[in-house]
Amino acid sequence: MARTTGDAPAMPPGAGGPSAVDRSLLDPARLRARLAAAVPLAAADPGSVVVVRAPGRVNLIGEHTDYNDGLVLPAAIDLEIRIALVPTDDRRVEVVLDATGERAGFDLDEVVTAGTARRGGFIDYVAGTAWAMHEAGLPLRGFRGLLASTLPQGSGLSSSAALELASAWALSPASDPAIDPLTLARICQRGENAYVGVACGLMDQFASSCGRADGAVLLDCRSLDHRAVPLPLDDLAVVVCHTGSTRKLQASEYNARRAQCERAVAVLAARGLPVRALRDVTPGMLDGLRGVLDDETFRRCAHVVEEDVRVEETVAALGHGDLAAVGRLFAASHASLRDLYEVSSPELDALVDIASGVPGVVAARMTGAGFGGCTVNLVRRDAVDVLAREVLASYPARTGLVPRVLAVDPAAGAGVA
Ligand code: GLA
Question: Which atom of ligand 1 is closest in space to residue 254's alpha carbon?
């Protein structure tokens, strides 16, 4: 997916431990001062300034299952987008990027009447959210805002969804969308699908909107039932390893995978099988589908069906404190994404391989759509520095790229900072 966001990467690799993330970039007092410098309105009426926030996410397991009506287990993380803003009553939205000074804007009335005509650049995610909120019957307000981010750009950590959720809170009169977080996530997803033109599932917006500081959230993408899945955070850290590679072919390959899944469903339904989505294919049905689907489509289908089972098993294993099982399930998920769904990359494989050899790394796999981006690792707290050292020492020699190792904490969903 061609994701365009106003991110502020600025995270050089550290020498002996995880890379430093400059979280002071998001300090509300700093953002207010920066906004006042960029927007005279904010300086004139500092009392009216509001700061809203929305987190990125890692997906623990359940990859490429959301658009197949399946199960996902993401966690929102404390790398996030914040918008400091002063509301206006002129129906105009203008946003300045803290990192670059780039400015972009639009008229709310134009966006809601002109439909899905895109402008280009990060502002499309703000405008798309405004469009989708209007379509859903939600009120909108204008604002002048300053956008800052600690989410690395184009890294598979859902900076687009974070931008959409932060925008939704910024655009809402009284800074309160007055709607439940799951519905708001669906509205933001509609904006990304119909306005921005990316056919993503619901997982990223769901995680950014419904995240929890105590761990992950399990979502059934068919029923939309969801529940908290706490993580043993006293013992384990969530560590993201960034390949340092730009994501290649992501939009076309993502859409191609979706199309293959839809074709598989059409073939099975045409044969009279009760299959509305790959969610309806059970592991027991798989063997019988070998001759029905071509080999490649069969492998895509097998990944989705088995990944749903792995999500359920991971939730159960976490519940029992069976971390060895969690490690095996992450490994099986990564292998399946590499060999059956074919969305991994040599860089992601190298990161998982390196992490898997470090004592104290409980579980490692690629996270998100793939084709570059990041891995997610569950790591015993006393092994985080060892993992960082090992990745920083071995990965560049294997790939010619500079990785980043980011220790993150689960975070609450979007809201007022
Ligand atoms: C991207 C999409 C999500 C999901 C993942 C793969 O992050 O935005 O909807 O499909 O890829 O699990």
Answer: 11
Ligand 1: residues within 6 Å at CB?
59, 63-64, 66-67, 200-201, 203-204, 368-369
Residues involved in catalysis: 204
Say if residue 14 is in the same domain as residue 101.
yes
pLDDT tens digits, one per residue of 304-359: 999 999 999 999 999 999 999 999 999 999 999 999 999 999 999 999 999 999 99
Any idea what the CATH number is for the domain that residue 133 is in? 3.30.230.10
Please state the pTM of the whole predicted model.
0.94
Structure-block tokens of residue 228: 């908290």
Structural domain span for residue 391: 240-408
CA distance 296 to 309: 21
Q: For residue range 223-275, list pLDDT tens digits in order.
A: 999 999 999 999 999 999 999 986 666 788 999 999 999 999 999 999 999 99
Q: Are residues 191 and 144 in the same domain?
A: yes
Residue nearest to atom 9 of ligand 1 (CA): 201
- Looking at the chain, how many residues does it have? 417
Cα–ligand 1 centroid distance for 368 (angstroms): 6
83 and 179, same domain (yes or no): yes
For residue 67, the CA-to-ligand 1 centroid distance in Å is 8
Digit-coded pLDDT (tens) for 374-390: 999 999 999 999 999 99
Is there a single domain that holds both residue 394 and residue 346?
A: yes
349 and 317: one domain?
Answer: yes
Residue nearest to atom 1 of ligand 1 (CA): 369
In a domain, 273, yes or no: yes
φ and ψ at residue 413, rounded to 5 degrees:
-65, 175
Structure tokens at 196: 């921005």
